[in-house]
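Hi R.,

Here's the chain you asked about this morning:
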Amino acid sequence: MKAKAAIPFFTDNDVEDEVGDFLIQAGHIVTRLREVMLGNSPDPIVDANCRQNDLVLITHNYKHFRKIAHDLESGGKGVKHLSRIDLEIHQSDGPRRIGDVLHLIEREWQEHRSIQMSICREVVRIRR
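And the predicted structure, written out as tokens:
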């Protein structure tokens, strides 16, 4: 049986620390935005950092990042894909919902080394 690979996550400033703490306890790597850049860093800079370093962005600010990804990925060749988990839920529900669907996140990473997922209150959407 293949060992579970640690997923390199990057949590945006709007993500509860408990989400990162849970992921670390589950054996994954978590970088918090405030650890590596200014808290008011523009979203395109956050996006570029995650793309360049192969990090899976976790954010509640999904509308902005969807637009950035759409503009970049539809506009030209050679743009690296952004792995992203959009939390379309209240911030306080983030830790519980991440716990509920971690098995799906881990499977996507193991099979595709990429994640495009929206986590809602009762629904999870995976885009490929």
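The chain has one domain: 8-126.

Let me know if you need anything else.
M.
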